[in-house]
Design a protein that fits this description.
Blueprint: E1 9-14, E2 17-22, E3 26-32, E4 37-40, H1 49-56, E5 61-64, E6 82-84, H2 103-112, E7 134-136, E8 142-144, E9 149-154, E10 163-167, E11 172-174, E12 185-187, H3 194-209, E13 215-217, E14 224-225, H4 231-243, E15 250-253, E16 259-265, E17 268-272
Parallel strand pairs: 4-5, 5-6, 6-7, 11-13, 12-17
Antiparallel strand pairs: 1-2, 2-3, 3-4, 8-9, 9-10, 10-11, 13-14, 15-16, 16-17
Helix pairs in contact: 3-4
This protein binds zinc ion (ZN).
Zinc ion binds near residues 69, 158, 159 and 177.
């Protein structure tokens, strides 16, 4: 298969945006204005993401990294203009750390499921990063794409400088890893903070109540819309209970040797650091 349209799963999500998924679960989003396009996240770096984006839009593409975890920065080096919050890089550089699900495990799972890679891809030589040349973008900044203005929203918790992108006109929030259902909440890595996460959910609930968005597109699962977004309140209340020490937990490791507390909020797994919350 080729490294563009045969490798990526592309789905139109609004009349000016697409989801571009790599390996079915690693989602990036491309938003097109009149003058330029904004790509949110860069997948796991197996396909040719820049080539794929060029098949969807003729406009210059600015890449915004929602945060710097390995599964969001894979193809970042293909892009000339790369933006991220200042807490996600050091002097423009990210040394990619393989937290959580290691790429080699994902490769092995993909192969054992009988799935194929693009013809040019060599699984044995696979590595990601480092990423360099990242420019700092301020949280709460607006990005003008020409006829379309999107707002950046700081959504720390899972990562200290994670940014979501709000398209108020479309009523859509592109949330990165801000939450997931089946994957739950990962709050056990370095830089994660339950307290920040509560503030993030409070802020998102306020925006949702005010009608700023009614759909949230996330990286690794299907989007949430309408009343299903009451999950924001469920997670906020659950994390409040974690902070108040009102919820039971198990001491586990996250499957990769990283110790964690495992809580459940409304049946969804939530991992925090083993000692502090
Ligand atoms: Zn992440």
């Amino acid at each position: 298969m080729n490294r563009t349209d045969e490798w990526y799963d592309v789905e139109r999500v609004t009349d000016r945006s697409w989801r571009i998924a790599e390996g079915t679960i690693f989602g990036s989003y491309l938003i097109e204005g009149d003058d330029r396009a904004l790509l949110i996240d860069a997948g796991i770096g197996i396909g040719d993401l820049r080539g794929m984006a060029a098949e969807l839009t003729d406009l210059p593409v600015t890449l915004l990294l929602s945060h710097a975890h390995w599964d969001h920065v894979g193809n970042a080096s293909q892009f000339d203009e790369v933006l991220a919050d200042g807490r996600e890089h050091e002097n423009g550089r990210v040394e990619v750390s393989y937290i959580g699900y290691h790429p080699s495990e994902w490769i092995a799972d993909w192969q054992s499921a009988g799935r194929e890679f693009p013809d040019e891809f060599d699984p044995d030589g696979y590595e990601i990063g480092p990423v360099t040349g990242i420019e700092t973008v301020a949280p709460d900044e607006e990005i003008d794409l020409g006829g379309v203005t999107v707002e950046l929203l700081p959504v720390p918790g899972h990562s200290p400088g994670q940014l979501a992108v709000l398209d108020r006109e479309q009523g859509v929030l592109y949330g990165g890893d801000v939450f997931h259902r089946n994957h739950g909440l990962y709050v056990h890595f370095e830089g994660c903070s339950v307290e920040s996460y509560v503030d993030t959910f409070d802020r998102l609930i306020g925006l949702w109540d005010a009608g700023a968005f009614d759909t949230v597109y996330i990286s690794h699962e299907r989007p949430l819309s309408g009343e299903d977004l009451s999950l924001l309140e469920t997670f906020r209340d659950g994390l409040d209970a974690v902070l108040a020490d009102d919820l039971e937990y198990e001491q586990v490791d996250d499957g990769t040797g990283t110790p964690a507390r495992r809580y459940e909020i409304a049946g969804y797994p939530v991992l925090t650091k083993p000692d502090i919350v």
